[in-house]
Amino acid sequence: MSEAVLGQAENKQLAVASQWQLVWWAFKRHHLAMVGLYITAFLYLIALAPGFFATNNPSAQNGRAAYHPPQSLHFIDTLADGGWTFKPYIHASVLKRDPQTLAAIFTEDTSKKIYLQFLGSGYEYELFGLFKTRLHLLAAENTTQPIFIFGADRLGRCVYSRIIQGAQISLSVGLVGVLLSLTLGILIGGVSGYYGGRIDFVAQRAIEFVLALPTIPIWLALAAALPHDWPAVLNYFMITLILSLTGWAQLARVVRGRFLSLRTEEFVMAARLDGASEGRIIFRHMLPSFASHIIASITLAIPAMILAETSLSFLGLGLQPPSISWGVLLREAQNIRSIATAPWLFIPGGAVVLAVVALNFLGDGLRDAADPYNK
Hints:
The chain is built from 15 helices and four strands. The chain is of the alpha+beta class. A four-stranded antiparallel sheet has the order 1-2-3-4.
């Protein structure tokens, strides 16, 4: 088939394609955005079922394993006859004490192997909060010895399992906070742009007031005002609410501008003359016309929410132990002693960077694909 025929077929396909099809085709051509989509989907899959991906109970303490270094994970096991097989394992650890400082020294005992199995049995947890199970992606065979893939903290808790568990709060705070900001932004911005007049004047002054507030000091002040004896669930909800209350104004201004430009379009006037209600005009005709822009704005706002929660928790003004989030975990690495003794306590920061970069790649791809007719 000639290139001319292929070009005609492609142009015909583009002519009859819906807006969402055009957005998806443009998005697939953005390679970094596709990478960001896969990483983001994987991270949120972990957040949905952290117990399945964890290897140890994230809250279990082990005094003899304080500051246990990360253990090397081996996948190829050498057989007695010189052959090999794919079977993951780690070497057992031996605890010794420095004769002068009495500091704990962990050494690998290469003569003892702890074999691991996929879809094995480990500690009990609730899957999706519905039922209890012991099924894990990776678990030790016939032993209760903990596995420290990313090492342990000062209380002997598994850093890897705590990072996995912390993904549930850190990622959900960004998602829930953005959904609340989206609701406020569309409601206030939509009413302001659709009706105009005095309503628009009042709404714009409110938006300008919120945008003029210094974000970080407001976050710190509101978070510090929360009682420290509140339950973890209520504290989580209030931190999410604080983040969303200062994040809606920018989206409201974008929505207001789009409504101002759309309310005089022919399809809106036709719907109004046809007797459609104002709610139907807004939600059935106006919002879908720039829904792709809203989705892109949401995707780019989630990383900011994640960083805000991490910053507040790191400073001790956000979520508090026993809650587990990436910001709470990074508080373990606040002093020089922790840095010198256990540099692996910085690994939660890598999880934050990975999530933020992936979401930014995803948001950039959605933003570029939002107007496929301009390609």
